[in-house]
TrEMBL record:
Pfam families: AAA_lid_14, Response_reg, Sigma54_activat. This is Sigma-54 dependent transcriptional regulator. It comes from Pendulispora brunnea. PROSITE patterns: RESPONSE_REGULATORY, SIGMA54_INTERACT_2, SIGMA54_INTERACT_3, SIGMA54_INTERACT_4. Keywords: ATP-binding, DNA-binding, Nucleotide-binding, Phosphoprotein, Transcription, Transcription regulation.
Amino acid sequence: MTRLLLVEDEVVIRSELCRFLSRHGYEVAEAGSAEEALERADLAGVQLIVADMRLPGAPGTCLIERAGGVPVLIMTSYATVRGAVDAMKRGAVDYISKPFEFDELLATIERLIAGAQPPAPGKSRPPREDPFGLIGDSSAMEAVRQRIRRIASSDATVLVLGASGTGKELVARALHEHGHRAARPMVTLNCAAIPESLIESELFGHERGAFTGATSAYAGLFKAADGGTLFLDEIGELPLNAQARLLRVLQTGDVRPVGSSRTQHVDVRLVAATHRDLAAEVKEGKFRGDLYFRLRVLEVRLPSLREREDDVLALAHAFIERACTKAGRPPLDLSEEAISVLRSHAFPGNVRELENAVERAVVLSDGGDIGPEHLGLDTAEDGGERASAAPSAEASLSLNDYFRKFVLENQDKLTEAELARRLGMSRKALWERRQRMNLPRKK
Ligand SMILES: Nc1ncnc2c1ncn2[C@@H]1O[C@H](COP(=O)(O)OP(=O)(O)OP(=O)(O)O)[C@@H](O)[C@H]1O
């Protein structure tokens, strides 16, 4: 049954419309304001939002940007038709002027729903990218979007959790860009990619002469992010000393640069991310419990790609389109065999692995459909953690053995970025695994 969301503050009109649309076979959710629509109404599965332009609080048109890409039909009075035209420019799918006949509204809705039907499964389907840059219509992804919408405007600290390559950084950016700090800077530090000895001065700044090499004073990233957002990626790698200092900043809002006795107040929203199980790290004494509780005021959990299988093809199509546009090539499609490989592959490297495989396929394909040979993914439903670049002869090696062998054999001829890409992991994950396996990068 087609699901609509009706946003109208006049209760009588709303209930009349609701009854009328239900009689014509629609499932109708209702809200009295745009805020209520975003907070209370379940947007998952909504195919069209029908919203009054004038509402108490934010206007109906704000849903165009904030409803995660769900098409919006604006109802407007004659006096605000100009506004409706502007709404069309902002991306509303259509508008209807009040007063209107109910049948006229019904015809408009039917036309819009018919136009929005996805084409037959399998072949190219225009990917739906929402204002957050997140692709995927699965209910798990919808839940993530709802969560972002709900918490973006708050100032509370957010902990983004999820395996490598699930989109944690994208979510951090979406939180910043859709909050009230969007016009201020978002500053990112990858805690795994900076030597332990430098993390504190990088974050909190230092005085001139605070340590050997500190030839001038440095304000630090907290100060750089003042008024905006500081994104600490791989927070699980933060050394215990820096954890204690970070906790103090979060408690007081005051930063004291290394080697200084003076503090400075900063107004920073902190978003942190990790692929680690921080609760377990707390139990093992590797992460401070008090900091953990301070960080997870709000949490966003990202599902692995396998937990949202329905999104694999939408993502693949979107990445193909992007890669073709980037390469200035006409759009390519996936062969039936490639689709079935994508459906059965385990994707231990999550969306990043899929993105890399598709980019490689676009480069390798000769212009016909993309086949399994271009994707270079294994077809076995092994569910294991095997890197996508692993050739079949190496199938019996453990992932760690494979990683060691691949890195040792290729590090002299490939850049770190290329090594990471071939292994289907981020540079950061490569760096981290190198540390863990005592395979430091050659100087
Ligand atoms: N839902 C999504 N829609 C579109 N692109 C996505 C999505 N999720 C992830 N990506 C893409 O996948 C790649 C990896 O995402 P991102 O860097 O945000 O992951 P991550 O969880 O921070 O990974 P890591 O922990 O390894 O850094 C990026 O290129 C990102 O744009």
